[in-house]
Amino acid sequence: NMEPEQINQMNEDLAKINLTDFPKSINLTAVSFFPNETSQVLSAIVRPDTHLQTLHEQVEKIVVNIGLGSELKKYRPHITLGRFKEKDRFQYEFEILEEPIKGKVKQLVVFESEFNKGKTDYTLLQSFDF
User: Fold this and answer.
1) HSE value, Cβ hemisphere, 13 Å, CA-based, for 20
2) Which one, 11, 18, 115, 123, has the greatest CB density within 10 A?
3) Which pLDDT value is given to residue 102?
C-alpha cells in the first residue's frame, strides 16, 4: 500500500504535467492477448507514438521519485478489455485490423492495485482531465 505522503507527492507531481501538450487521440491497431498469445488478458493494442512515450517517461519518473521503483519493462500501450480466469482457456485467433480504430483520450487516471485473497482490487487515487 502507498503511504498518504507518497500519494500526496504523486498527485502534486502529476498535476504539474502539462497534459495540453499531448494529443487527445490514440489508434487501436489490434485485439489480442497481452503480453502474449498464451496470456489470460484480452487487450486492444494501442499504436505507440512519441507523445505516449513521453507521457509514460514523465509518469515513470514520478513513480520512481516517490519510492515505488521502476518496472524497467518496455512500454507497450494497451487497453485491457477483459481477463480469463481459467488458465486453460480456449485458443482464439483475431483478424488483423485493416485500418486502426481511432479513440479519444479524455483523462489520465491513476489506480492503486492490491492483490488480496486471490484477486486484484483497484482503488482510484486521482484523475486528471486532458
Assistant:
1) 1
2) 11
3) 93
Of residues 75, 58, 65, the one with CA closest to residue 128: 58
Under the banding of pLDDT at 50, 70 and 90, the label for residue 94 is: confident
pTM score over 0.85? no
Instruction: Round to whole Å and give the CA distance between 56 and 46.
Output: 13
Decide if pLDDT at 95 tops 80: yes
DSSP sequence for the chain: ---HHHHHHHHHHHHTS-GGGS-SEEEEEEEEEESSTT-SEEEEEEPP-HHHHHHHHHHHHHHHHTT-----PPP--EEEEEE-S-TTPPP---PPPSSPEEEE--EEEEEEEEEETTEEEEEEEEEEE-
